[in-house]
Specification:
The chain is built from 13 helices and 22 strands. The protein is of the alpha/beta class. It folds into 3 domains: about 1-50 and about 80-150 and about 275-335, FAD/NAD(P)-binding domain (3-Layer(bba) Sandwich); about 155-275, FAD/NAD(P)-binding domain; about 350-460, Enolase-like, domain 1. It is globular. About 45% of the residues are buried. Bound molecules: flavin-adenine dinucleotide and nicotinamide-adenine-dinucleotide.
């Protein structure tokens, strides 16, 4: 079998690359080891986690109505099998859609594990009938989009059924009485929120001195306060797991750091301490492609590897490991294969942590500015001054712009609050378009909305804010 373009991996990076190439008339073979397209994001990540977070959010709103507004519905009755099948239905619908889209575009999909034999040949292994004779496939160009897999440090390695990674936790087989979440990052906080709302007593341990160490602390503060209450202060920073012993009734975990007890028993443990590139067993040593210590493929700004006819996109090509970054890099890669001079050079890749409240940011963060010794000004609008936030009882939010003091251009934005993930796109557009502060202050935002807080924060910078008093700039 020969492919003018072979794409390895059918996640948001791989299927985007395959579909875009097919739309240009390229004959594409898309190889994925899994029987369904969608990759980590659709099958075991973004989508199932957001389906469960939706349930968690509604449960929280019902509780808030009872506590704050005098409208009580009684205790929720959770039919776990139904929740699970509803979540699986969402995934199946979208995966089926991708299969149809591949078919309609004429993309040849092969279910197999691919491994490089040399820089122009792949060996395809697996059970599927779609694998060509002998499993050998040659190609002119290839795009590697094999994604990432969880990191499991030595003390956390165990065969215990009670210890889960995110994929296992998302299967939602049961709600453990007590759940230890190791890692206060994206996955730990999102899935910790889900399990707490569904009834587990959740403990979170994070080895850094705060949650989400890469995110600006003024944003994290709001989340940390609410999450701390939700898990009844069982949120331990500067803490790591040094040992885990499986027993028939529990996992016995030795904690080192600020936890109240050194050894504790948990019904289940979720390990979420980061992910590494899926480049092991890909046969890259048979090519000139280079990887770093976490297995990430070294690429130039056009996504080309050290083999110029092989490109890499998505998680396998490095941080940030986000689905929309993968899809965008796929666009760059296809442009490059068409001979265009496109580079992956985004000012603002948004990131959203879908906790309660959500945290979202785009462009430069204050931490990055400080590390780069770059002078920035910030303009903050606390949601306590927002009519909409007050009306919904969720004033635990903040909208912040980072502004270049010389050009007055918007160079970064951070938002914490309910729905921050939906609000951040305005900031992405403003930063990408090189907008100045006045472009936002002069754009009329509808009242009363949370999107107004982006305009309000810009007005704070100009000294023209109405909702809070900050003297005018002269
Ligand atoms: P993947 O989606 O991982 O796809 C890689 C594919 O390659 C897989 O299908 C795999 O089977 C296949 N493959 C691997 N090796 C081979 C091989 N040798 N041969 C053939 N096929 C192979 N990102 C967001 O932007 N928003 C979110 O809300 C979000 N939530 C997440 C929640 C969780 C729990 C997790 C784990 C991740 C989440 N992410 C989220 C991250 C997101 O899933 C990834 O950034 C995204 O899936 C990366 O896309 P990709 O195409 O690079 O790789
Ligand atoms: P992460 O990098 O977001 O967080 C891991 C956390 O674990 C860090 O805070 C780290 O300090 C901590 N940690 C590391 N080792 C530890 C140890 N031994 N004990 C205690 N804490 C430890 O990683 P993740 O949560 O596994 O997520 C992986 C990636 O998946 C993310 O970086 C992100 O790119 C992607 N993701 C994105 C979303 C989203 O976009 N909403 C959701 C989930 C995952």
């Amino acid at each position: 079998m020969h492919a003018p373009l072979a794409v390895i991996g059918g996640g948001p990076g791989g299927y985007a690359a395959a579909f875009l190439a097919a739309d240009l008339g390229v004959d594409v073979v898309l190889v994925d080891a899994a029987p369904r397209l969608g990759g980590t994001c659709l099958l075991h990540g973004c989508i199932p986690s957001k389906a469960l977070l939706h349930v968690a959010r509604v449960l929280a709103e019902v509780e808030e109505l009872g506590q704050d507004w005098g409208v009580a519905f009684g205790q929720p009755d959770i039919d776990l099998a139904h929740v699970r099948s509803r979540k699986d239905k969402v995934v199946a619908t979208l995966a089926g859609g991708l299969q149809q889209l591949a078919k309609r575009r004429g993309v040849r999909v092969v279910c197999a594990r691919a491994r490089f034999q040399d820089a122009n040949t792949l060996q395809l292994e697996g059970e599927s009938d779609s694998i060509p004779d002998g499993g050998v496939m040659t190609f002119d160009h290839a795009i590697i989009a094999t994604g990432s897999s969880p990191i499991v440090p030595e003390p956390l390695r165990t065969a215990s059924q009670r210890v889960m990674d995110s994929e296992e936790a998302l299967r939602l087989e049961r709600i453990p009485d007590s759940l230890l979440v190791v890692g206060g990052g994206y996955i730990g906080l999102e899935l910790g929120t889900v399990y707490t709302r569904l009834g587990s007593q959740v403990t979170i341990v994070e080895m850094a001195d705060r949650l989400l160490p890469a995110v600006d602390s003024d944003l994290v503060k709001h989340l940390q306060r609410r999450l701390g209450k939700l898990v009844e202060d069982r949120l331990f920073l500067n803490t790591r797991v040094v040992n885990m012993v499986d027993s028939p009734a529990a996992v016995e975990v030795t904690l080192e750091g600020s936890a109240s007890q050194a050894v504790e028993k948990f019904d289940a443990v979720l390990v979420a301490v980061g992910r590494r590139a899926a480049t092991r067993q890909l046969g890259l040593e048979k090519t000139r492609i280079q990887v770093d210590s976490l297995g990430f493929i070294q690429c130039d700004r056009q996504q080309r590897t050290a083999e110029p006819h092989i490109l890499a996109v998505g998680d396998v090509a490095g941080e940030p490991m986000l689905a929309h970054k993968a899809a965008h890099q796929a666009r760059t890669a296809i442009d490059v294969l068409q001979g265009k001079s496109t580079e992956f050079d985004k000012r603002a890749i948004p990131a959203v942590i879908f906790t309660d409240p959500e945290i979202a940011w785009a462009g430069l963060t204050e931490q990055q500015a400080a590390m780069a010794n770059r002078r920035v000004e910030s303009a903050l609008f606390p949601w306590a001054a927002s009519g909409r936030a007050q009306a919904t009882g969720r004033t635990d939010g903040l909208t912040k712009w980072l502004i270049d003091p010389d050009s007055r251009q918007l160079i970064g934005c951070g938002i914490v609050g309910v729905g921050a993930g939906e609000l951040i796109s305005e900031a992405v557009l403003a930063i990408e378009m090189g907008c100045e502060v006045t472009d936002v202050t002069h754009s009329v935002h509808p009242h009363p909305t949370l999107s107004e807080t982006l305009m309000n924060a810009a007005e704070v910078f100009s000294g023209t804010a109405l909702e809070i008093y900050k003297p005018r700039r002269r």
